[in-house]
Amino acid sequence: MGRAYHHGSLDEAMLEQAIAAVRELGTDHVSLRSIAQALNVSPSSAYNHFNDKEALLGEVAQFGLSVLDERMANALARHAGGSDVDARERFAQLGLAYIGFAIDEPNLFRLTFGPIGAKRPQTNPSSGPYAKLNAALDDLDMRRLIRPGTRGGLDTMVWAATHGFACLLVEGAVPPEAISDFMDSLAQLMLMSDTGE
Amino acid sequence: MGRAYHHGSLDEAMLEQAIAAVRELGTDHVSLRSIAQALNVSPSSAYNHFNDKEALLGEVAQFGLSVLDERMANALARHAGGSDVDARERFAQLGLAYIGFAIDEPNLFRLTFGPIGAKRPQTNPSSGPYAKLNAALDDLDMRRLIRPGTRGGLDTMVWAATHGFACLLVEGAVPPEAISDFMDSLAQLMLMSDTGE
DNA sequence: TGTACATCAGTGAACGCGCGTTCACTGATGTAC
DNA sequence: TGTACATCAGTGAACGCGCGTTCACTGATGTAC
C-alpha cells in the first residue's frame, strides 16, 4: 500500500491520464497540473518525462492516430474475403471506421487532426490510415471496380471527403442519419455500378 | 482629440478588434481583457455589449461565415455567363473560393467551423455558402452535366470533400500544390466528361 | 431657453482562479568494488 | 555480503502571469417639462 517514492512508470501513467482527460474534457481543458494532481504527484514531475505540455499532448495525438489505425485494421480484418464484393465492403468499412472514430472519440479526433497532431511527423508512411486507404483503392482498381482513369486523384479525394464529413459530423453540422447517404453517394461516384440497376 | 467618456460604438469596435485578434493569433489566444486593453477601455466594459466571451467569439465566427459567403458570391459574379462552360466554371470557382478562404484566413476558418461557430444557428438557410453550392449543383443538373442519378447526395458529398480538403490544407496535411489535382478529380468524378478525351 | 432627472455606457478595484515552468533539494535505487 | 557512491525521479515552494467575471460606482448624455 505504501506509495513508493519512485512511481516506477510515471511517464506511462501520465500519458494514460492525459489520454483520459483529453477524451473527457477536450484538449483545451487539459492542464499538466490537473494530470499531476490526478496521479498524486507534484506538478513539476512531468518535466522528468516530457519536455513540455505540448510534447505530452503530442503523444496523446499519436495515440489517437493509433486508435484510428487499429479501428481501420479491424474493419479490414472483418471483411477479408477475396471477392469483388468483399473488396467493395472493405473500402466502405474503412470509411465507416474513420467516421466511427470521429463519432466515438470527438475530442481525440479533434486533437489528432488539429494543429498539435498535424505537427507530428507520421510514424510510418507505409502503414497507417492513409496507406490503408491507398491499398484499398489499389485493390479496387486492379479489380477494375473504379471508374477508369479516376485512380489518380482518388486517394486525396476520398480522404478529404471522409475527413470532411467526419468534421461536419463532429461539429454537428450534419446529422448522423446522413452517414449512409454519404457512403452511398461516395460509392456511386467512384465505383462502377454493380447491380446494373 | 479628447477621448469621449462614452465611446459611441464600443460594441462594433470590440467586434472589430476581436476579429483582428482572432485573425492574427487564433481563437485560443484571444482574451476579453486583451481586446479591452487594445481599445483603452476597462476589462469590464465588454459586459455592457456581450453576455460573455463566447458571445463575442460567436459574432466573430458569424463574421467569418459572412466573409466566406462574400468570397463565394464574388466567385459566382466573376463567371456569370449562361453557357455550360460558365456553369462548370462557377462550380469550380465556388470550391476554390472555399479553399481560398481557408488558406487566407486559417484562424477565421477554424473558428467558423469549430465548436463555437457550429453552435450558432445559421442566419439564413436559403442564402449562405451551402445554398450557393446547392444552387450551382442544381444548375449543373438542369444542364445534364452531372452524372445521371447522382444529384441526390451530391451536395453533402461535395461540401464534405471541399471542407475536408480545406481542413487538411490548413493543418498542413496536404500541400497547396495538390489543389488543382483535387479540383480536377472532383470534376472528373461528378461531371460528364466534356472534351470526350 | 433652462433646469431636474432618468438612463446607462463606462470605470476601477477586486475576487478567485489555474496555469506552465523553474529551481534547489532529497531520498530511493542500483551498481562497483 | 557489506559499503561507498553516482544517478535521477521525485518534491514543494515559488515565480510571474493572465484570465473571466462581478460589483458598486460615476459621469456624460438626452429627454421632459
Characteristic terms for this protein:
197 residues; mainly alpha; elongated; DNA-binding; Arc Repressor Mutant, subunit A; Tetracycline Repressor, domain 2; homodimer
Secondary structure layout:
The structure is a homodimer of 197-residue chains.
Chain A: H1 10-25, H2 32-38, H3 53-78, H4 84-104, H5 106-112, H6 115-119, H7 128-142, H8 151-170, H9 179-190
The first copy, chain A, binds a DNA duplex (33 and 33 nucleotides) through helix 2.
- The CATH level-2 architecture of the largest domain in chain A is identified as Orthogonal Bundle
Number of domains of chain A: 2
Indicate the low-confidence ranges of chain A by residue numbers: none
| CATH fold-level assignment of the largest domain in chain A | Tetracycline Repressor, domain 2
Roughly how much helix do the residues of chain A carry, as a percent range? 55-70%
Structural category of chain A: mainly alpha
**CATH class category name of the largest domain in chain A:** Mainly Alpha
The gyration radius over C-alpha positions of chain A equals 20 Å
In a nutshell, what does this entry contain?
The first copy, chain A, is an all-alpha fold and 197 residues long. Chain A is built from nine helices and no strands.
Describe this structure in words.
- The structure is a homodimer of 197-residue chains.
- The first copy, chain A, is mainly alpha-helical and 197 residues long.
- Chain A folds into 2 domains: 1-51, Homeodomain-like (Arc Repressor Mutant, subunit A), CATH 1.10.10.60; 61-190, Tetracycline Repressor, domain 2 (Orthogonal Bundle), CATH 1.10.357.
- Helices cover 65% and strands 0% of the residues of chain A.
- The first copy, chain A, has 9 helices and no strands.
- In chain A, helix 1 crosses helix 5, helix 4 crosses helix 5 (106-112) and helix 8 packs antiparallel against helix 9 (179-190).
- The mean pLDDT of chain A is 93.
- Chain A binds chain B through residues 28, 113-115, 117-119, 147, 149-150, 152-154, 156-157, 159-168, 171-174, 178, 181-182, 184-186, 188-190, and chain B through 28, 113-115, 117-119, 147, 149-150, 152-154, 156-157, 159-168, 171-174, 178, 181-182, 184-186, 188-190.
- The structure holds a DNA duplex (33 and 33 nucleotides).
